Amino acid sequence: MTPPESEADPAPDAAPLKLVLFDCDGTLVDSQHMIVAAMRDAHAAHGVVLPERDRLLSVVGLSLPEAFATLSQGDRAYPIEALVDAYRNAFTRLRNAEPPEPMFEGAREVLDALRRRDDVLLGMVTGKARRGVDRVLKAHDMEGWFATIQTADDAPSKPHPAMVFQAMGEIGVRPEETVVVGDTTYDVSMALQAGASALGVGWGYHEVADLERAGADHIVHRFDEVPAAIFDLLARRRAIAG
What is the DSSP annotation of 39-74? Predict the structure, then answer.
């Protein structure tokens, strides 16, 4: 198969199969409106003071129990399990009433270019539940684009590296041929713990400075920069391996 010519599609090479694992919320889709609304409803349902918006967005990417545990800041009176249930109910209601989460500019085009390459497989590693992922893929006509999808249903919460290990195991690729693309420090840490490269994106829910401090191998600021950055990171790994 010959990939289409595109600025977002560098020329293929003879290197082994590459696995590119994308986070979802904050990386592919902008879900902050629905997340904050569901958080607001969940906290109101239990009479709990709603944290500031920045704090709410800072836990995007974690599994729900881990997210609420982080927001609790160790307060034993914080009803984590009840808030998880209330959030799920609120999000389901909003999901059925609101348009699907919009993709970031250029995301779909870049994914389409990458998936058409013979030497690349796409995967997803996300704190979403699988039904949420399925809804996003269906809404944006991307069903079947990802060779492996790891969700909060499948593995411990980020930054635990299990999702990356599971994805690599399913596809049969090595860490040095794997890149994780994400917007949070959890994505960066997860990638590095699994031995993969970590490509941070600057349009999501964590600050670029935080991604840098977490050890991101590179950071991009527009989606059309993603493919070149991926292949540059992989080339660096091959050069180090000698």
Answer: HHHHHHHTTPPPPPHHHHHHTBTB-HHHHHHHHHTT
Q: Specify whether the CB–CB gap between 107 and 35 falls below 8 A.
A: no
Average pLDDT of the chain to the nearest whole number: 92
Tokens 């497989």 belong to which residue? 121
Q: Is the dihedral of CA 241, 212, 8, 191 positive or negative?
A: positive
Q: Is the pLDDT of residue 242 over 80?
A: no
The reported pTM is 0.89
> Could you say which DSSP state residue 160 is in?
S
Catalytic residue of the set 9, 23, 30, 183: 23
pLDDT tens digits along 171-180:
999 999 999 9
Is 210 annotated in the active site?
A: no
d(CA 184, CA 75): 24
- Predicted confidence (pLDDT) per residue in 28-46, tens digit: 999 999 999 999 999 999 9
Catalytic residue among 9, 25, 30, 187: 25
User: How many angstroms separate the Cα of 197 from the Cα of each of 148, 151, 156, 181?
Assistant: 17, 20, 20, 9
Based on the residue annotation, tell me whether 224 is a catalytic residue of this protein: no
